[in-house]
Amino acid sequence: MAQNMPTDPTRLGPEGTVAPTPQNTPAVHTLTGSMISRPQIPPTLGEEDEGTETIGSRDAQGLGALANNPAFAQLVQGRLSGLIGRSSGYVESLPTAVQYRLTALKGVQRDHAVLEAEFQKEIFELEKRFADRYKPLYDRRRAIIEGSAEPMDDEVKKGVEAEEEEGESDFEDEDDDEAAADKPARGVKPTDAELAEAPKGVPEFWLTALKNHLGLSELITERDEEALKHLVDVRVAYPADKSGFTLVFEFSAGAQEFFANTTLEKTYLYQDEVGYEGDFVYDHAEGTKIEWKEGKDLTTRIETKKQRNKNTNQTRIVKKVVPTDSFFSFFSPPAPPSADDDDDASIASDLDEKLELDYQIGEDLKERVIPRAIDYFTGRALLHERGAFDGDESDDYDDEFDEEDEDDSGGGASSRALVVIASPLDPSRSSFHTNQTRIVKKVVPTDSFFSFFSPPAPPSADDDDDASIASDLDEKLELDYQIGEDLKERVIPRAIDYFTGLGRLRRRV
């Protein structure tokens, strides 16, 4: 939680009082304060104090109970959300000359925004030019999947090299010699007899690839699989006269059992102007109308109910068509909220969530699944999905220290002195085996911004053997990289907005 008042003595108001921060409310960032700061070490209780209930301990227990109460947490979050965007008055309290300079800096920022918009449009045009260079590779992939062509020797050779670089299967136990012995050698060309017995191409390639995507797998039902097993290609196209991209799903003749379409498309369109951070802003999506065969609509189901007549006591069967979960609802995207929807906060929020999920799935298909379909088919891509195998980790034990901050600790800005009180009943730590105690001071690392310049080292081979160490290092590396990216992409280009607090508000929105 951000502090309402800064502790920096240089940030003073016109009368010498400490000025509040530009935004006196917690900002909801990708990087939260809890992700950067480690929990404080609790003070040590002496042996004579252990088990003694104090008023403070009761208060702490009461606060802990409230913190775990969902209703209380929701109430606090609602109050804090109401403060977002409100100025604390800090910028307004600055001298006129300083505010005059801030206005000029906003003018410089506007020129930067114009140049950044031009940069993003150039990047998009470059993306479309490279799509033409990718096309022969995707056509070749499709031919192998469909079975209209067999692999060439140079393709197999490169594939073997790729598998050797990846090492053994990520899901295989390295100690399982028996499994390794049963595994066929890489790149061995099948015989004519084996080719004759084998199925054509790679059966259900795209169905398997889509199901191995963490988000898409939740959309695909068992009923959907009967139609999706006839999916032969998924590709990206770009509208000629609009900014955006189109996802094209092409089906074989077997899908005619369900619908008359041979291709289904979903187009995501961008707004004409780029967003605050220079990125294209999603406007809306358009999907193909699916021509379902009678009784084969996978997006609906028949709901059967019995109704009894109160007068005659006779019953009748009433059948009603109702919507149901289906991957094919993806081609009927939600419409952006209207002005009436904006008046109802709950409706607007629900629509925003649906739109965000729909756009994220489209982006994942375009940026991940289509370019790396083979990795999604084999499941290897799952290892690179963020948080795919991360477990909830918590500290099982608290270090028991009495903490005492000292300015003369000699450890610099990134260290602190801890005072450890040795128990007189512990002869190994008492002085001369007497009943005396001693003060032990130790310099240990502490939280500091300047630790940013001492980045964590990537895990070594020894660290990889310890899953907990490797996971902790991965989290630190990811956080360190995210902070660097935020500085590069957000703070430095829009420093004036982060100074005034507008950057925090825009980041949340």
TrEMBL record:
Protein name, as recorded: Nucleosome assembly protein
Chain spans, region Disordered: 1-62, 149-194, 388-413
Highest taxon of the lineage: Eukaryota
InterPro entries the UniProt entry points to: NAP-like_sf, NAP_family
PANTHER family reported in the protein's UniProt record: TESTIS-SPECIFIC Y-ENCODED PROTEIN (PTHR11875)
Listed Pfam families: NAP
SUPFAM superfamilies associated with the record: NAP-like (SSF143113)
Cellular component, GO, one term: nucleus
Ranges of compositional bias, category Polar residues: 20-37
GO BP term, pick one: nucleosome assembly
Biased composition (Basic and acidic residues): 180-192
Bias type Acidic residues, positions: 162-179, 390-409
Similarity-based family: Belongs to the nucleosome assembly protein (NAP) family.
